[in-house]
Every structure is written in C-alpha cells, then in structure tokens.
Design goal:
The chain is an alpha+beta fold. Helix content is 21%, strand content 12%.
C-alpha cells in the first residue's frame, strides 16, 4: 500500500519528504523542470515501498497511508496516480 500526498502540500512543496525517500518515488524534485509549474508533490503509487519515512518529514502533515487518507482528501489518491500516467 502506497502513501499519498494530500491538499496541505499545495503551495508548500517542501521537499524534505523527497530527501528521506529511499526509493526516489516522490516528484517533482527541485531539480526537475516541472517543479516550479506543479502545485504540489506526488508519490508514485507503484514505486512506493510503504516505508513511511516521508510522513514525519512533511512539515504540513500532508502525507498519509492510502487507507488512512481523511475523507475530505480521498480524491488525492487518484490525483497522485494520475500524475504518473502522463
């Protein structure tokens, strides 16, 4: 089960979660061209190994295990997946 980045990340895009991810599944990183144009970061659902390292690193508490995403942010499960279906 993957982790999901939700609404509190919008506009923040703090990359502390990127720095602690052992499998590099959170994008866009600061060195990727789309970082400036993207409103938030996304976790690749197929690459996430469910380690949870990103959760305590997030300063705005935007990251949840997929089955623990609050109801008001459930749509972000699909938004994270869609980001990687380009």
């Amino acid at each position: 089960m993957a982790y999901v980045i939700t609404e509190p990340c919008i506009g923040t895009k703090d990359t502390a979660c990127v720095d602690v991810c052992p499998v590099d599944c959170i994008h866009p990183r600061k060195d990727e061209g789309e970082h400036e144009a993207t409103q938030m970061l996304f976790i690749h659902p197929d690459e996430c190994i469910d380690c949870g390292a990103c959760v305590p690193a997030c300063p705005v508490e935007a990251i949840f295990a997929m089955d623990e995403v609050p109801d008001q942010w459930k749509s972000y499960i699909e938004k994270n997946a869609q980001h990687y279906q380009k």
